[in-house]
Design goal:
Layout lengths: L8 E2 L9 H5 L3 H9 L4 E2 L35 H21 L2 E6 L8 E7 L6 E6 L6 E5 L4 E5 L4 E5 L2
Parallel strand pairs: 1-2
Antiparallel strand pairs: 3-4, 4-5, 5-8, 6-7
Helix pairs in contact: 2-3
Length: 164
């Protein structure tokens, strides 16, 4: 890192916060996709990928420090586990396809409430994808003319779009 070789580390939750599914609820899929497809390394707090949460009333961390806690790898939340599996599989496929890539923001049009960015391969010039996601509590219109997409996004919905 001292010579400029370190990249970024992305994460959606950590040991000091409630479990991501508690924070985002039904918006988790979009929040997870928008975070884990950022370039760089990905970090997940132990048990997050299965939705394991052993929080206690006095400490809302998924693995509290004040009481003994051990991840039950056979436990967790099946829906959260499925969400992580889907997004991690998408991230692995996209990272393999693009190689090294950079991003640039996409800006929603008036009356639209989504977030997104364009992923541009540095290894394969011209290879680009767009990722959009709705992390709001309401549905939103989404128009991405450069990808030929016009439609709606429910809370938590995300789309990976091809770009010419």
């Amino acid at each position: 890192w001292q010579t400029g070789g370190a990249g970024s580390v992305m994460f959606i939750g950590n040991h000091d916060e409630p479990a991501p599914e508690k924070i985002y609820g039904r918006r988790l899929p979009a929040a997870l996709a928008l975070t884990l497809l950022y370039p760089g390394s990905v970090m997940m707090y132990s048990g997050a990928e299965i939705g394991y949460d052993a929080a206690v009333p006095s400490e809302h961390k998924p693995l509290p420090f004040s009481v003994p806690a051990e991840v039950n790898w056979d436990g967790g939340d099946p829906q959260v586990k499925k969400t992580y599996q889907e997004v991690l599989a998408l991230a692995a496929r996209l990272r393999a396809e693009l190689g090294d890539y950079g991003i640039e923001p996409l800006w929603p049009g008036p009356g639209q409430a989504w977030a997104g960015y364009i992923l541009s391969s540095k290894d394969k010039p011209g290879l680009r994808r767009a990722l959009i996601g709705n992390v709001t509590l309401n549905g939103t219109r989404a128009d991405v003319p450069q990808a030929g997409f016009s439609g709606s996004l429910a809370p938590g919905e995300y789309r990976l779009l091809d770009l010419p």
